[in-house]
Amino acid sequence: MRQLSPGRMTDIAILNLTGSTITYEDDFAIVRTPANPNYHWGNSIVVLDPAAVNDARRWVELFRANFPLADWIAIDLPLMPTDVVGWSELGLQLEQLDVMTSKSAPNQTALAEGYTVRSFTADDWNDLIVAELEENLSSGDYEPVSHEVFVRKTNDARKSLCATGKAAWFGAIRDGELVSSLGIVKCGSTARYQAVATNENHRRLGLASHLLGVAAQWSIDQGCDNWVIATEENNSAASVYRRAGFVPAEPSFSAYKKPEL
């Protein structure tokens, strides 16, 4: 066993804040989110023992035993397995998220001309839901009906965190339209950024960079002195985060099989 990485530690903290239950066993944990049954990573297995990451069959069988109705498989791993074939033979893809941390508040940048920034309003939450649903329709990643249930319940949980002062969501607005947004969640003295997104017609204007600083100031006021952010492996967003003062930390690893369409 070993101490959880910054990415996994804040993932679990947010799961706890949003009502998930986490049951710990000797070398694994089971995450359940009854309020959001379509939340794949809220209904998953977390492997805690680095020496057990190559035992793909054990973890897949454990997932299926605990989530017999799930049409996905989601297993968090403490490191990347060396036995890639063992996982792929069971239909799972090994994935990596790049995690970055900062001991100082992300650098504040100027806001592009013609934009305003605000904490989320009811209209902004509605716009975010629409944007997330449209993104899925465009990518075809998930079955639309069940995915809409997931998106709406996820944003309900986000709104609840904001209402209780445990999180904040900020948006950049142009001509009344939400064009860039992100959230930040207080996990003790660590602040974890969430769901950084910018409309493709408004990218490369520094909107996300500006919002990073706005959210950082909110978290400082909440007593945070450490910041964590994650992005897909080799995502160009990492360069934005580096300019804001983030440095690479231990990545997060997982094995995943998404539902068949």
In CATH, the topology of the largest domain is named: Aminopeptidase
CATH class of the largest domain: Alpha Beta
Low-pLDDT segments, ≥5 res = none
Q: Count the strands?
A: 12
Total number of domains: 2
How would you sum up this structure, described in words?
This protein is α+β, with helices and mostly antiparallel strands. The chain folds into two domains: 6-97 and 253-257; 116-224, Aminopeptidase. It has seven helices and twelve strands. The protein has helices spanning 6-17, 56-66, 84-88, 122-139, 144-163, 207-221, 237-243; strands at 21-24, 28-32, 44-47, 73-77, 93-102, 116-119, 167-174, 177-187, 190-198, 226-232, 247-248, 252-257. Strands 1, 2, 3, 4, 5, 6, 7, 8, 9, 10, 11 and 12 form a twelve-stranded mixed beta sheet that branches. Strand 7 (167-174) and strand 8 (177-187) form a beta hairpin. Helix 4 (122-139) runs antiparallel to helix 5 (144-163). The longest helix is centred in the middle third of the chain and has 20 residues, at 144-163. The radius of gyration is 18 Å and the shape is globular. The N and C termini lie far apart (37 Å).
Task: For the structure shown, list the relevant keywords.
Aminopeptidase; 7 helices; 2 domains; globular; alpha+beta; 29% strand
